[in-house]
Amino acid sequence: MIEFSEAFGVAFSLLISLDHELAEIVMLSLSVSLVAVFIAIIVGMPLGAALAIFTFPGRKFIIVGLNSLMGLPPVVVGLVVYILLSRSGPLGVLGLLFTPTAMIIAQVILVLPIIAALTRQIVVELWSEYEEQLRSLGATPWQALPTLLWDGRYSLVTAMLAGFGRAIAEVGAVMIVGGNIDHVTRVMTTAIALEVSKGDLALALGLGGVLIFLSVGVNALAYLINKPASLNNPINKPTLFRSPIKENVR
Amino acid sequence: MKRFSPVGLLLSFSLLLLASLAQGQNYITLASTTSTQNSGLFAHILPQFTRVSGIEVRVVAVGTGQALRLARNGDADVLLVHHRPSEERFVADQHGVSRQDVMYNDFLIVGPAQDSAGIQGLRDAVAALKKVAKSSAAFVSRGDDSGTHKKELGLWQSAAVEPGADAGAWYRETGSGMGATLNTASAMNAYALVDRGTWLSFKNKGSLQVMVEGDSRLFNPYGVILVNPQKHPHIKETEGNRFIQWLVSPPGQQAIAAFQINGEALFHPNKR
């Protein structure tokens, strides 16, 4: 296979030459996926924690539903978002189709279930461990929710990274709602798909290498952010009752 | 210790995104085919149009069938595709304003060098397809309702062969773009129908070679249509018309003719 060595060379020269067009595509990929993950965190984490703490009729159905949504096919999400945002669709007046915003919407739908379901899994364990203590201190479930989320923050980083991984690697949905427009909605994955369809497999593979490099970079950054705290807390055990305020002072 | 601020990082990304959204308000969306984009034609001619007009052209490249659907939904301002009967129906149904010829090239039947169906050098595309069907040599079809696919189905019809009956056997539908289909044909040593533009710029030919060319039935004309502003009020009529007029004007036509690979023109302008 000649492609692999060639692709390695292509990836390397793309990276060191800081190709302007490549930089643009990389920045758009990162912006779209990070913003989508950020929105999914804001909505998904409280949602997942609430599902872990509160009991109400139909909760099990929601949990099963949420877990299944983790496997949502991106193409289907893309199609649904396309139909909604199309000029002939219900939200057509907004004119959002073929914009980065449309891509963010699609990715939020894909990432939200992953973050919410993983958050629920993490919080449900903390809750079973500390429910009695928290209740004996007079905390209501509403007050316990932020405490538990704060407490599980190091495990929750994994949930965020899982969500980010899904977003940055996804091609089916952003291709449909973004349209892979040069300089506007072209991201790493759709650029790779385009090069494959041009038969330029070495360049496609080279771009793939850059995408993996990017993913490693984000994960390394997350590890670094996580690390100082992990050192203070070697077994990364939940540090219940250390208040957020104290944490910030430290 | 100094810590990273993930929130600050995100905020800067959001700002960047907003900044990128704000720029380029003066643009039109062009629904077109994968053959025109994959060949590199747009990358060659669109900057010239943007330079003289200040209008950015955002290309969404999909199969002709999907491009027509996008345009019908009002999701594009201008349509540039290559299946004349569909284009004429599109205009007759009032989805588009009027159709103008822009350029043409031709289709080719390509196949593996060993040529088990023995069609290399034939001038008659229909006879060649008959031989392919008879020898049950592998043939890869787009199968995606694109202009090339519609053309291919028309040729099979002329050959009185119903390849769909043998789908999955010697007849393989990829359901994807021209490039992906050529990649498949190259890997399977199969025959395929391809437009000359994509073929000339395609880089993963493997053992594929041109088998049949020059049949008048392989003619491949491209037409341009403005999506009807009366159906979709948001259509950018002025800018869209400006683009269409440029395409058929001498500078546009010269730009198309000047796009060559190894001295061979990929598309021929209709007007000189």
Automatic annotation (TrEMBL), chain A:
Cell compartments where the protein resides: Cell membrane
Record membrane topology: Multi-pass membrane protein
PROSITE patterns the record matches: ABC_TM1
SUPFAM superfamilies from the UniProt entry: MetI-like
InterPro entries: ABC_perm_TupB-like (IPR049783), MetI-like (IPR000515), MetI-like_sf (IPR035906)
Keyword terms: Membrane, Transmembrane, Transmembrane helix
UniProt domain ABC transmembrane type-1: residue ranges: 26-222
GO CC entries: plasma membrane
Residues annotated as transmembrane: 33-54, 61-85, 91-118, 156-181, 201-225
Keyword Transmembrane helix among record annotations: yes
GO BP terms: transmembrane transport
Official protein name in the record: ABC transporter permease subunit
Species whose genome carries this gene: Amphritea balenae
From TrEMBL, chain B:
Domain PBP: 29-250
Pfam family, one: PBP_like_2
Keyword annotations: Signal
Signal peptide stretch: 1-24
Keyword Signal among UniProt keywords: yes
Presence of the UniProt keyword Ubl conjugation in the record: no
The name this protein goes by in its record: Sulfate transporter
